C-alpha cells in the first residue's frame, strides 16, 4: 500500500482508535495520528482518574501500534497531504477526521490573560492533561468553583468533592444535566451532589473571574455576589473541532457535514465522532462516535451497504465513584439516559422512584414502542432496556412488559 492510497485517521481519541482497530481487523492498513502526549485513553472515564479511583493506565484504550504523534495544522487537499506543526507532511489516500471537540470557554471578564492562556487555577476539563493538572491542584479544603452543570460539570464537581475539595457548582440553567435528564432525575443528581457536600446553585450566571498576580482568587456572579476560589473548572459545553476542515474548504456547519456513508463534501475525506455533524446532529457522546467508527470501518473495507442512520445505542453517563482517595461510601453513581425522556401527550409513562435508596427509573412508550428512558442510581435493568430500545421492536400490548422492563434485571 503506498502512502497515496492509505487511510490516515486524524485524532487518536475514542472514535479514531476504534476505527484504526477495526480497520486492522478487516485487513485495511491505517495510520493513526494524534497530538496528545499520553497513550490513547477513554475520555469518558477521566472523572474517575480525577476522583482518584483509577490511575491513568487503567483507562488506556487497547490501541493499535503507537499512533504517530503530531499536531496537524493544515490539510492540503489538492496534494492529499496533512501539514504538521513541526513542518513534516503526511500523505493520505483517504483521510478520516476524528478530531473530537474543544471545550467552550465562556465569555467571562478576566478569563484571558494578555498572552491568551487561562489564569493559574482555571482549568478546562477535556483532556488527560486537564485532568492531571486539576488532580495536582486539588487538596482537602481547597475552594473549587465549577462553572456549568451539565454532564461534565456534574462529573467534575463530584470528583473534586470526593477528593475533599469544598465545591460550589454554578449552573446557569434551572436544573442539572437538563439536556439528558428529566426534572425528577435532575433532582436526584442534585441531592447526590449535596450529600457529598457540593453547594449547588441553579439559575446562576457567573460574569467574572478575578485574579491576583495571574492566579484566580474569586468568581463573581451576575448579581454581584463573589465566591472565593482557589480552583475554577470551566465545564460550559463543547464545540466540534472542525477548524482544519473549514480552513481547507470542506463543508462545515456546526460540525463537519457528513452523509450516511460518513463522507464529507470532499470524496477523499470522511469524518466521525464529536467533530462530525450527521443529519443535523452533533452528538458529542461516546456511543455514536463508536458506532460511526464501526460503520466507517466496514465502508472503507468495501461494504457498499455500510450506512450510519443515527444512533439507537443507549447513552450511559458515568459519574466518578469514590476511590482510594475518597471518603468511604462514595461508590460509583450511575446514570443512563436515552431517547426522549419527556413524554408527549398520549404517551405511556412508567416511573419507579425509591427516595430512600435515591434511585429512579422511567420509561416513555409511544404507539407500543419504547422512545426513551432514564435510570438513576440503579442500572440493573439497563440490559433489558437497551435491547428493547436498540432493537426498536414493538412491545407486547398487554402493558405488563413496561413494568417488566423496569424491574427485570436479568441478563445485563
Ligand atoms: C470528562 C468527560 C466525561 C465524559 N463522559 C461521557 C459519558 O459519561 N458518556 C458519553 O457518552 N460521553 C461522555 N463524554 C464525551 C465523550 O468523551 C466524547 O463524545 C468522545 O470522546 C468523542 O470521541 P472522539 O474520538 O470523537 O473525540 P475525542 O475523544 O475528543 O478524540 C479526538 C482526538 O483528536 C485529537 N486531535 C484533534 N485535533 C487534532 C490535530 N489537529 N492534530 C492531531 N490530533 C488532533 C485530540 O487531541 C483528541 O485526542 C465525556 C467527555 C469528557 C471530557
Cα(first) to Cα(last) distance is 43 Å
- What gyration radius follows from the Cα positions, in whole Å? 22 Å
Beta-strand segment tally: 25
Number of domains: 3
The best one-word shape is: globular
CATH homology superfamily of the largest domain = FAD/NAD(P)-binding domain
Secondary-structure arrangement, i.e. CATH architecture of the largest domain: 3-Layer(bba) Sandwich
Question: DSSP helix count?
Answer: 9
| Beta-strand residue fraction | 25-35%
User: Which ligands accompany this protein?
Assistant: flavin-adenine dinucleotide
Tell me roughly what share of residues is in helical segments. 10-25%
- Quote the CATH topology of the largest domain: FAD/NAD(P)-binding domain
Main sheet summary: 5 strands, parallel
Low-pLDDT sequence parts: 320-330
| Global mean pLDDT | 87
**What would CATH call the class of the largest domain?**
Alpha Beta
Can you put this structure into words, describing what you see?
The chain is of the alpha/beta class. The protein is built from nine helices and 25 strands. The chain has helices at 14-25, 46-50, 128-137, 151-162, 183-195, 243-247, 286-300, 382-391, 400-407, and strands at 7-10, 30-34, 68-69, 72-76, 81-84, 89-91, 94-97, 101-103, 122-124, 143-147, 166-170, 199-201, 206-212, 215-221, 226-228, 231-234, 238-240, 256-258, 269-271, 276-278, 315-319, 333-339, 348-354, 359-366, 369-376. The strands form seven sheets. The protein has a five-stranded parallel beta sheet with strand order 3-2-1-7-19, covered by helices on one side. Helix 1 (14-25) runs parallel beside helix 7 (286-300). It is globular, with a radius of gyration of 22 Å. The relative contact order is 0.13. The chain binds flavin-adenine dinucleotide. Flavin-adenine dinucleotide is lined by residues 10-16, 33-36, 43-44, 46-47, 71-72, 98-101, 125-126, 151-152, 155, 241, 244, 273-274, 284-287, 289, 315, 317-318.
Amino acid at each position: 500500500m503506498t502512502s497515496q492510497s492509505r487511510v490516515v485517521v486524524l485524532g487518536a481519541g475514542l472514535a479514531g482508535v476504534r476505527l484504526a482497530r477495526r480497520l486492522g481487523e478487516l485487513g485495511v492498513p491505517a495510520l493513526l495520528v494524534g497530538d496528545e502526549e499520553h497513550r490513547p485513553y477513554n475520555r469518558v472515564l477521566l472523572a474517575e482518574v480525577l476522583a482518584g479511583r483509577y490511575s491513568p493506565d487503567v483507562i488506556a484504550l487497547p490501541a493499535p501500534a503507537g499512533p504517530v504523534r503530531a499536531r496537524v495544522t493544515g490539510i492540503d487537499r489538492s496534494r492529499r497531504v496533512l501539514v504538521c506543526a513541526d513542518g513534516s507532511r503526511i500523505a493520505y489516500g483517504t483521510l478520516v477526521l476524528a478530531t473530537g471537540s474543544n471545550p467552550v470557554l465562556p465569555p467571562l471578564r478576566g478569563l484571558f490573560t494578555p498572552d491568551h492562556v487561562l489564569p493559574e487555577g482555571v482549568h478546562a476539563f477535556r483532556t488527560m492533561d486537564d485532568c492531571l493538572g486539576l488532580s495536582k491542584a486539588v487538596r482537602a479544603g481547597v475552594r473549587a468553583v465549577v462553572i456549568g452543570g451539565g454532564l461534565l460539570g456534574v462529573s467534575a464537581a463530584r470528583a473534586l468533592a470526593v477528593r475533599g475539595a469544598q465545591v460550589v457548582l454554578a449552573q446557569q440553567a434551572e436544573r442539572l444535566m437538563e439536556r439528558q435528564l428529566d426534572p425528577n432525575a435532575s433532582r436526584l443528581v442534585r441531592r447526590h451532589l449535596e450529600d457529598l457536600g457540593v453547594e449547588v446553585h441553579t439559575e446562576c450566571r457567573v460574569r467574572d473571574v478575578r485574579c491576583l498576580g495571574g492566579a484566580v482568587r474569586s468568581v463573581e456572579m451576575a448579581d454581584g455576589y463573589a465566591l472565593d476560589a482557589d480552583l475554577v473548572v470551566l465545564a460550559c459545553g463543547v464545540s466540534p473541532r472542525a477548524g482544519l476542515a473549514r480552513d481547507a474548504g470542506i463543508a462545515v456547519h456546526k460540525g463537519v457535514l457528513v452523509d450516511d456513508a460518513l463522507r464529507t463534501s470532499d470524496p477523499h475525506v470522511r469524518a466521525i465522532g464529536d467533530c462530525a455533524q450527521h443529519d443535523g446532529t452533533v452528538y458529542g457522546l461516546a456511543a455514536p462516535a463508536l458506532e460511526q467508527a464501526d460503520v466507517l470501518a466496514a465502508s472503507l473495507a468495501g461494504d457498499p451497504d455500510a450506512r450510519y442512520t443515527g444512533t439507537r445505542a443507549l447513552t450511559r453517563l458515568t459519574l466518578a465513584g469514590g476511590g482510594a482517595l475518597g471518603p468511604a461510601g462514595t461508590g460509583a453513581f450511575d446514570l443512563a439516559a436515552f431517547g426522549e425522556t419527556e413524554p408527549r401527550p398520549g404517551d405511556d409513562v412508567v416511573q419507579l422512584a425509591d427516595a430512600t435508596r435515591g434511585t429512579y427509573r422511567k420509561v416513555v412508550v409511544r404507539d407500543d414502542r419504547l422512545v426513551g428512558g432514564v435510570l438513576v442510581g440503579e442500572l440493573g435493568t439497563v440490559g433489558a432496556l437497551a435491547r428493547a430500545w436498540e432493537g426498536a421492536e414493538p412491545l407486547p400490548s398487554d402493558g405488563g412488559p413496561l413494568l417488566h422492563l423496569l424491574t427485570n434485571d436479568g441478563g445485563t
